[in-house]
Amino acid sequence: MLYRKIEHExxxxxxxxxxxxxxxxxxxxxxxxxxxxxVGQRLFENYVEINLQTDAIGERLFxxxxxxxxxxxxxxxxxxxxxxxxxxxxxxxxxxxxxxHLLTLLKFLKADDRYTYxxxxxxxxxxxxxxxSIPVGSISVRQMFxxxxxxxxxxxxxxxxxxxxxxxxFEAREALNESLHxxxxxxxRRYLLTGGLPDAVNMFLEEFNIPKIRExxxxxxxxxxxxxSRYDLERKLKIRRxxxxxxxxxxxxxxxxxxxxxxGKEGKQFSDYQDEFDYxxxxxxxxxxxxxxxxxxPLIESARKNLLKLYLNDVGLLTGLLYGDNLKPILxxxxxxxxxxxxxxxxxxxxxxxxxxxxxxxxxxxxxxxFMIDDFQSLSVLPIEVKSGKDYSVHSALSHFVSNEEYTVxxxxxxxxxxxxxxxxxxxYVPIYFSMFL
Length: 438
Hints:
alpha/beta
């Protein structure tokens, strides 16, 4: 079974005496149902699971449920004698986005407090925006992502003690020895191919069969495209178009969304596609990086939402689109192949999984810095440049940025492939795999 860090959060929440119901949000196929089922069956004597998406296309038992009495009637028909008391009965409402009205009902289920509840959904961000009566104060939302690199290392046999030792190395700015560096870097490259979607990772562990992994990823991309078509019929083609444009946008110099390319129409503005962007971001299938005009803490104060970069939510989906079944661009580091987009994508994925809001800096005079995040401990900004090749010391924008005393910057990071930490003024060169500890 794959180790997921969110398991401890779910367990702690279910053991607590919280006055809220936990909602686990995330894109399809990131492992939400599996981990909730695993924790729920272990903690509770009585476990009842209802897949509301299956119900919506089948019996529709919950389609017209709007009161507690109606809900308990249908729940009793499914749970039967498993429904006992709050302390020993867990009801898992899976794919709750299929019935938005049940999100409103959660407030009353919690107030009645007859059983313990947990819910999940693959488009909860979108559904909550469309729910007329959000149960504020009654739900606690946790976002779930594909496996990050730390979880991928554990899946490949690294112990928690080893991970802790790696973290200590990072915090002390000490390089790994040559053999361990090569081992971690080898797995990092395989992570670029596999990504963190559980089905793809399991296939990697069972048999490193790249065609089979690519088939899994292709199927998941199809699911994402189908989801993007389901909820907004008027805009479904534009949503799919924006989603399908993400890899090609990332290959451009600026990497950001060019509005006129979405439909090939001049005169279109960013605001014309705001709903489409919001959908892709809220659904979890795209990661947003917003431009900032004034790089000072806190970054949100100078965010320019009309200058947007989007990344796919999983680096394995990207490498599948770019390189298909060919392993050489990643594993052999082919010199003619620029892996900049891939390396940026994996860093974006790591930062997002760790809860960071992502920004970038772009200035006509000074150039662009790939990522910027808030450092809440020091009340400063951490700029991050990602380098995939040998020219890692070329970063004029970052150099200008850290030398400007007007900005709240203590240090800038360059993530690169080399083994050692290097410090040049305020710029620290960091082995790329240590992005898992940012």
